Amino acid sequence: MRSSYKFSNEATELYFITFTIVEWIPMFTNKRYYNIMIDNLKFYRREQGLKIHYYVIMDNHLHLIVSSNNIVSRIIKNLKSYTAKEIIKKLKSDRRKWILNLLKYYKKKGKKDSEYQVWQEGSHPKIIKDYEMLNQKINYIHFNPVKRGLVSEPEHWIYSSARNYAGKDYIMDVDKLEF
Asked: What is the layout of strands, in order, in the sheet containing 126-127?
């Protein structure tokens, strides 16, 4: 079933979005797989005008707060499509057949363009309507690794913008919001 969440036709909206690996399979358990996401987020930020304000990448999903002067839905669709292909290519080269088998097994029957399905359908875009909602989503993003028991403080998780905002070394630039 398709998500009831929709992207707006407005190019300048601020969105909270989520990408989830099918059936919550733990895909990002190795730096090589995290790097696929990081490198592609950097590319779409640099080349397609995706503004990434906040992010966290977990083992089986990621959350972003993004905006763009371009059509966000198109950027996200392309990002998910390309990262899926890169992840599958890496899984094959790493001979991670058990994950490939799961991605094949859980592929939606109607999907004919690929042997595998990496991402669940949709990105669950929510338009950030006010400062209160923005704060709630930022806390949700940054405290995700803490809640999962992976770190004791949000800025300890390397794959999070919490490091950017805490003045720590970080792996990806973010686009700070102007208030």
From this structure: 50-57, 61-68, 15-20, 126-127
